[in-house]
Amino acid sequence: MKELLLGLRLLLGSGRGSRVRFMLMVVGSGVGVCCLAVVLAIPGILAAQDSRKAAREPDCSNGRGSCLSTAGDGLALTRLDPYGSEPLTRIFVAQTGAAPITPPPGLPELPGPGEVFVSPRLHELLNRDPGLSQLLPGNEVGLISAQGLAQPDELYAYVGARPEELKGGGHLSEFGWKYARFPTVEPSTLDILRFTLAGVVLLPLAVFLSVCARLSAASRMRRLAALRLLGLSTKGTQRVNAAETVAAALLGAVLGLGAYWVVNQLVARMGLPGFKWYPADGALPGTALLVCLVGCPALAWFVGRAGAKKAAANPLAVRRSAVEKPPRLWGLLPLVPGLGIVIGYCVAGATGNVPTDTSFSAILMPLAVVLVGTGLVLSLPILSRALARTVARVTSSLSLGLAMRRNEVEPGGALRVATGLVLLVYAASLTQGVLIELNQVSKNTSPVQLYTMALDDVPENKELALAKVPGVRSHAIQAQSWTEPSSEVLTSISAVIATCGQLRRMASLVENCVDGRPARLMVQGHTYDEASKPGNRFPFHLRNSEGERRVVNVEVPRQTIKYHDDTAAQMVSSGAVLIPPSLFPAGFRPEDRATLKLLSSAAPETVRSVLEGIAGVDPTIEVETDGVDAAALQQITVIKTLLAVGMILGLIIGVAAYLVAATDRAVERRPQVTALALLGARPRTLRAVQVAQVVLPLAVGLVLAVVTGKMAESSYLVTGGGAAFWDGAGLPLLLASALGVVVVAALGALPLIGRRIDPELIRRD
Q1: pLDDT for residue 185
Q2: Neighbour-count burial of 601, counting CB atoms closer than 10 A to its CB (0-12 exposed, 13-18 middle, 19+ buried)
């Protein structure tokens, strides 16, 4: 305990410079803890949103297939539709029993027939987009309060209906379920987010806190060495140094938590692109507070003890004239196997031999990422020293020669100055890989949009109305037929029921189509359906609106039609049979999982208009939008926003770590700079020396980070199973960012050489 008190007394009584250094350590720790609190708050925000989603879930709606309940005093029907890139959720409810149903959170009562409760943002959109009211039939009677919404901008509505209007609904007895049907972020995706944020934020944060805990390390080590020579024990010397770092980290943690509270209140009210939350959701849990208030001082304690180990064990090794030991080559060991794994996956992707064993890759790929990242940090001093020795030997420039000789004898400065930014650039490449993989799902990339509805939910009169919805190009019925159960082999065939005119409006290529004549559709480049052989007969079971049933046998024709549409995966399979509607009796349509398909342009305005038109015909129809998953699109938006927040935090931390380390290194070198000035070196030469000293190691590290980062990103994409392996689009941005960092570092090094010469700095030498 007395060593800790001695450390605090030395801090308070060692002059203004020490107090300024202590305040800088506090501010630096505060910035780091604030960034750490942001990262730790994200899981709590997502959990709070999912908790409110679960509390409002109907206990037995059509969306939960495992629910087999036939009891309940009401009916519930859930519909989720895309509104642009956002999901619009509608809950249709109807009271069937005498006992009243407790309303979900956020509602004073359940809406009756013709009544609608909407979220505040949906209320605003209804005023701007009158067509949206077709999705919400009825009069608005109130707003859903915050208790019933996952986040302030959510599009959510409860629509009252009569029981006969909800034929596909499930029995409702209460609201509330064990989990959210559509979580804000899926658990598997959340694991990827945690791993990415750990690389983008937490690794640079650990480097930054370590840098802040070791400000003025050289002068402090000489002071500790003096205490050791005066008789203080080894452990006591380490405790003296740890006292200052722990005090700074503890005050910084309190300052950082206060800064996070302010940031949470402001940003929660303004919101981020695609992601908003209530300020109460951002409150840190007890474990996060414990990590900030205990974990950061504990890290500072270990850093302080480790920093004083050299001075405590060998006090003479930290004297001014002592020469630093050159870095050992073992620092390259993690980089070699890591790059070996990464290069192996890149070669596999380039040659088309993509590994199929994802379980093995799931272990090997994170291991390679960690090994390469660790190898980058440990190899910087080795590479910096080798480069400095080579350049100093061949250069004829005085300033460059002085800078390189200094880096040669002090290669550890490269590790201290450049580590944060190098790790940030490396992690940025991996982040791009995650974004590319996410963009390959739940996004319609074709120029047309396909809408699919179960034919059982669409009576014949509504089918005609849906075909006339503004924006719909054409429509067709797709059905499936199986051979009779008495057949030895049960086979099936797909059929498209449409006229040649309907087919031409749906596809970009239709050749040899004759009205009134069946034909086989041949899609070039697609596998042909073996069951579709000319002469085979398949029964189609039909039904009309009165419930009468008939069976029509269709023989697979010999005539063929060349067919190709613009949907992402082709609307029909090669070998499907085109059946003219006139082949079936009037008023009869296929049953047994037949579907109605509509086609429109993929323009967002057109898609929105078509969905509103479909709702105008029947707001309870379940529409599947091919290639567009509204819930998944929102998840991708949230993930992108959170990754962008992580990148911004990582950039702040990386730049702060560089500026703190570079400035502190320049201050420690003032005696050497003053000595060179007294020997006649001009200020311009000294500034050039300082710029070269900090920029060259940083440039080497950034180039290595870009190269290894892009390789690691490509190997991650290869193991992800997506279609894209190489990301050329993100490389210019990454190179421009690295160049900008180098320029800022060069400009930041210029003012560190002053005009005034202070002989006091070298008097003791």
Answers
A1: 85
A2: middle
